[in-house]
Amino acid sequence: MRLSHEATAPKSIDALESEIAAAAREISSTNNGADTLSSSVPDVSWDDIGGLERVKQSLIEMVVWPLEKPHVFRRMGVSPPLGMVLHGPPGTGKTMLAKATAKASGCNFLNLSASDLMKAEIGESEKAITRAFDTARALSPCMVFIDEFQSLFGNRSTAGQTTSRMISQLLMELDALKAVSNDNEVDTYIDQGIAAASAINSIATGRIFVLAATNCLSAIDPAFLQPGRFENVVYVGLPSESERAAILEIQRGKMPWSEDVELVKLVEETKGANAASLIALCQAAAIQAMQRIPLDAPIDDQYITMTDFVAALTKGNIDFQSPEQ
């Protein structure tokens, strides 16, 4: 196939959005968007994530506590948050954090992607958002997770018509969640003869929490960051030295490392690596070991050595980023 060198006119944002939506529709042609969305409680725990203790604590306070002790929130006059944004470089564990939070809280986990929400026909993207939140309500308590949030809900000042309509629809859904979680809802239950404690529990178990993840916070439409929406913004940065050690320790517990593997040395050599890269390094070292060890070697004699890690590092396939200032 040959590429044409003829000059072509630049496409408009709306035209590009239409092409993206069409591509997403083709990829998911066997699905019908949010009509076929499914969710489950993820099998990921806090122990699977090395470091990030500050972020974990924020998620516990904002998601787990409102479900575990809704009476305390009402007593203290605190409205549980409806949503939160995790932002930071790629590969730092934002998706893993979302899944671990859902498991810790006992929530169902609804992961929304571009193919779930971006549709080709006018008006269908908005309907997909509505259907997704209808699904979340049916599965409550439920966490709605939207990764790469800025790619779907970027700033309206530079967005096309499809994105602008999607932003408006999601804002409406968030505002609807806020209305349901309001204290007036408790009063409505009480007026219907339901005890206050039962009313509070009913609202808590019907809770929906929206967690957005992005690599570029400034690209998100600012309307989402207003109070009552995603007012809680938490940064997930590159792992520190101690966090890199914790991540590698978790991997060591899952793999047969030789006693000669120098954890301190690996931590020093991986400055600027994100969590995903550290896991990839361990996988690459395991492949090096498999290439080195004879096929007929006893299974109990097969270990990953420091030499395998050095070889994996030397190949240079690990993503190292400049640590944030």
TrEMBL record:
| Tagged with keyword Transmembrane helix | no
Q: In the UniProt record, does the keyword Signal occur?
A: no
Locate the AAA+ ATPase domain: which residues? Answer: 80-240
SUPFAM superfamilies, from UniProt? P-loop containing nucleoside triphosphate hydrolases (SSF52540)
Q: Which GO terms describe its molecular function?
A: ATP binding; ATP hydrolysis activity
**What InterPro entries would the database entry show?**
AAA+_ATPase, AAA_ATPase_domain, ATPase_AAA_core, P-loop_NTPase
Domain of life (superkingdom): Eukaryota
For this UniProt record, the keywords arranged alphabetically read as follows: ATP-binding, Coiled coil, Nucleotide-binding
Pfam name, any one: AAA
Q: What's the protein called, per UniProt?
A: AAA+ ATPase domain-containing protein
Q: What is the lineage of its organism?
A: Eukaryota, Sar, Stramenopiles, Oomycota, Peronosporomycetes
